[in-house]
């Protein structure tokens, strides 16, 4: 079998008679004919049809409720107030009411949404320092130039977290109340934890190393972003472990949305509470909004509340393909 | 006729040299000795030293020079500009995305070129430092080769090669000759005899040589290896004696001294001015039609790119007209940006968009195309079927740039001798005054010796004829330039003289001459040798006759004859002349012209090569005159060739016809079959030959170029003598057009079998009349058009009596005609070089007339029959492969970039890229590069054997059919469609409330909190899979390598994405891709959308393919279907052949 390397005489330059060099490798030559393609087609169609029907069925049991609170209820007052820049510093809270005709059974997710907010503007998206967010100490005090124009304040102190994204964090707060038929009001408990990707919360976003220092000490020498009311280490006053860069709301906000109309998770219904073990019962609800910062500079901001149940996906187009 | 030739000649010379003749000359002092003061003062010139520099770069200038050269290519320059723009302005993508691929491309090329240059440096050094012997002050001194200067006298021993161009002063051989072989220059392994200068050949020791006092005047160096004119002034007693110098005195660098103990010679051209170095200057680059289409597409894409950027810039400013969109509160500008003028801002935005979309012109396409061509060309070299066992040679690829052009050939121009025929001459018969002699060389398998082997067909001639007959034989024995090579065997051309004791060979650059001299030997006259200017002949009575060789009027292709002037031992002077019949007959004054002419014509019809022999007795006075003419011409420094031609013209006249010879040149194996296949493949085959019409026509019939029912149209001197050229042309065109009257031009593409074939025969003289520019002003321009019109309607054309340059002219004429067909020229000799260089594809045959054609060709094959495989199989494959490569490359980049364009409408035209930097960078370099490269190397849409069996398949791809605009537009639209499906499919997934908010089909604890990077990754994943599957759908030849590469690159993409998102990358400032890919894969809807979007993207193409195949199948598709039924058969054959080959090795 072994190929003789030095072939004698005039055959010295003879090429190897190997299948590859002679372009005669054994090969499979498929052809796209109706006979081969159609069965595959039918097969795919069947799969998609089944999937589509199943998804369609499941999606029918999901419920959604959307509430635009920009000017709803008493919020028109706040909206007007925010139009005037000089009132920016003042707090404003308002209330909106809505009712659910059918109960939302199972897990309920609470989102906030924004319209025409371009989180995907290039300069805006780039204006962040992941090095800072993953807890690198050098970046804490020397934020990357990408953060401009939010690198340092007027005094030259570094901003933490720097950049336009963190600066514009959504910080309206919501409190949801359920009013039952007897007129009693229950505060709907929302779980504000576990709304981020596990890896973001536990691996990627890190506070700078704390060596027996409090978080406030670690962040000493930095200033809060311009539009913020509280520094990053005091974001969650209720839970001290949810402060700094690992704050859930911050992490959620920092994952920039792909489109100008987007929504982000605010909380999940805490079903351990006795009133809400089955989910949200039907009835009337009110929502208290601490209307704060996002309306700065007269931007028209729309907020919507989406409450849904039994998450399942519907992909109607599957059906479409299935029929094909 | 003679006049015609000489005018033609001057035309050609003018064509070669340009309008002005070379006037500048150089003067060399042998041994650096000043000439005696009395002579006219020469201007001292500076000459370079003998350093050969073939390397392009030095250590210091490598980086800048190489960079400069690389960035001179438009594509590289474009990417450099993009890269610089990215560096300068604030751009959406990091400079790495375009810098890295560019760096990669540039580095790879630079390494390749650097390595090649290093090799050149090494060989340069070896050459420049090799020792040479120089005569200084009467002693032989060793010197490094590079230190040689013009005027040095060098001493060269046997088997050494010459360090530079030299003039031979003296040789160790008594007659002042030496032998050289120029195998390394032009591949001719025969020994050439060169002559020392008459006045210096007596100086044989270094002291004597050192005493030579002479100057040489010669032309400035020029690249023609076979041309040299100069003059030597030897000062004897301060009295200059001028002698002519010609190429017979010139020893070329690179040639090797043979059979001569040593020589002394003077350096005239050194270093880069030697003829060898001048010949290494690169040939003009040929570009293939595919490359031209590719560039056209590029321009289209550049326009698309610019318009995209313009549209986006415009829309951006329209959109931003609203104040809070221009600068929303959450995205404030920096101070410097605020101060910038709006025009500058708009311009920067435009540039930024350009950068964002620049990937639409793929940087890697050039690399891939080049790799494909380079690697692909190996399949030609590796092809066992194109290996010739007899020669031990395989196909050679000199340029890989034209692989696909082999699949596009419309016109084949072939030489006859040595290309269609074997160029293995055999003496068949001779005819003296109408009496025919046939040597019965082979009788019952035995060679019969001597005079008995002569057979007279006619009645025996009278005594006067007897004398004529002997004169004829002597003429053939004397009138040639054959050398006798004793003992030693040489490679290449061998012609054994196995009779007698010593083995000796006849060697000549022309096989005809060898055949003739051998034939004479069989007829009883043996040429023995040339000794001391005396030619020795062994006659029938075994007596040695000696003739003094006085002059040789060498052969040239314009005159088409050669002569010698000899003095017999009795003192009579003869001029013997032999040449083509048309070159001899007009100059003959007596002899039995009619009988000979009849015989010559009869032989020519049988396809034999005929030569006529004539003589002219010279009186001493006439000889004086001849000598005078010749030496006058030879001494001329300028226009020497012209003056020599004039002298020859005057000397070779008043000839007396002796007879004619016939030599057979057999057709090459399978030549007819090959030509038939080429015809079936829709190619037009033209034979261009210097041979005479009848011979050439006979060969054409034998090689099936003309069939029995082919109607032959003649456009020859004979006809134009009767009618005017004008009438003949119009006559012919009328004949042709009547036939093709109602039909359109494309008759040749399928119907040619039904109607009468036309074959055209045209000769050189008529052709030059047709091509003659502007003399009869308006009508002359039409001649060309009419001629082309006739040619278009002829299936075969034979051009005979062609000068080498005319061959090139014909090729150029067809090449530049209005359809711009792709031409291929194939030939084996130096006379074919011009047409090989002129045609789109030049193919050299490794023939017997040296290696010049091979060296100048783009591809070289051992035999004519291999043309079939290289065109029908390799050419076809390469074309299919590269056209898919080009189309696919543009397609995949449209798919890649168009979503980014669409995304701009959603991100406020802020130039936000859709994909992550790593994806942008690696998409073209690694994720999608290998499958298409591999496809373009090994795809076979039809089995090789079927391609060979059915040449008509070649028509399927004719006229660049796979790269036409409709197909290109189809691919582009497909790309846009796919991009829209991918983008809006993913958009739907993201924007649909129900869907996003509930994206938890398979994950229970997290939500589809997908940001824009997830969106981009989703689109990108669909993109990579779609694009790869699209290629998979197009692949018709799935070997294990295809499986490996296609699935492998998909797996690589997944693995890379997992890795890229799996780590918090140290030193990086952004971590946006962290876990994005995993997060995406962990959600069910993403999976669904990936599967669905891929299917939806591929659907239209699949449907189109299936429908087209079912309803309007192309020939290729039909064959594929048929081939499938026979699929088992070829594989069995292959198994067998493999087994047998194993046994044989």
From TrEMBL, chain A:
<dbReference type="Pfam" id="PF03381">
    <property type="entry name" value="CDC50"/>
</dbReference>
<keyword id="KW-0472">Membrane</keyword>
<dbReference type="GO" id="GO:0005886">
    <property type="term" value="C:plasma membrane"/>
</dbReference>
<comment type="similarity">
    <text>Belongs to the CDC50/LEM3 family.</text>
</comment>
<keyword id="KW-1133">Transmembrane helix</keyword>
<dbReference type="GO" id="GO:0005794">
    <property type="term" value="C:Golgi apparatus"/>
</dbReference>
<dbReference type="GO" id="GO:0005783">
    <property type="term" value="C:endoplasmic reticulum"/>
</dbReference>
<dbReference type="GO" id="GO:0045332">
    <property type="term" value="P:phospholipid translocation"/>
</dbReference>
<dbReference type="InterPro" id="IPR005045">
    <property type="entry name" value="CDC50/LEM3_fam"/>
</dbReference>
<feature type="transmembrane region" description="Helical">
    <location>
        <begin position="37"/>
        <end position="57"/>
    </location>
</feature>
<protein>
    <recommendedName>
        <fullName>Cell cycle control protein</fullName>
    </recommendedName>
</protein>
<keyword id="KW-0812">Transmembrane</keyword>
